[in-house]
């Protein structure tokens, strides 16, 4: 049995001995910690603190999915991705998923299922993403946040998987979501 608790794995655990905030932004903060390694050495660890987010896999009855095209500034390009959004302080992740789907796409769903939590940048961030399957979709009008620009479109999952294979989709949450959907539709998971 695998045990992920640091107390059960002292030969691997790093222990914080000091911490300071290196940067405080409106959305993210950067921490700079001093840690003691298992061999006793002290080193610095810098990491991004993130409030967490949700990812929604909108699945239509015909097996197609709803995707977004959105420009992402850090990489200066448009990405194809599943709807997603930041969890507000104290917000329930499922309520966040419902809110984000409605705001970004206009769709509402009658059937929701939590699938998993992923950690997409474990070397430099504490960010986690809770992934939800949304079915029983009904179209409505999007209510984008100020400064948010995106387009939505429907595509067969087989096409989306081909885009993953060809490297046209590189967003990790979308790739993982596609693999989950592939297993779900084949009734393997």
From TrEMBL:
InterPro entries: NUDIX_hydrolase-like_dom_sf (IPR015797), NUDIX_hydrolase_CS (IPR020084), NUDIX_hydrolase_dom (IPR000086). It holds the Pfam family NUDIX. This is GDP-mannose pyrophosphatase. It catalyses: GDP-alpha-D-mannose + H2O = alpha-D-mannose 1-phosphate + GMP + 2 H(+). One of its GO terms (molecular function) is hydrolase activity. Belongs to the Nudix hydrolase family. NudK subfamily. One of its GO terms (biological process) is nucleoside phosphate metabolic process. GO terms for cellular component: cytosol. Gene3D superfamilies: Nucleoside Triphosphate Pyrophosphohydrolase. Residues 48-177 form the Nudix hydrolase domain. Its cofactor is Mg(2+). It comes from Undibacterium parvum. It comes from the Bacteria. The keyword Hydrolase applies. The lineage of its organism: Bacteria, Pseudomonadati, Pseudomonadota, Betaproteobacteria, Burkholderiales. Keywords: Hydrolase. The keyword Coiled coil does not apply. PROSITE patterns: NUDIX, NUDIX_BOX. SUPFAM superfamilies: Nudix.
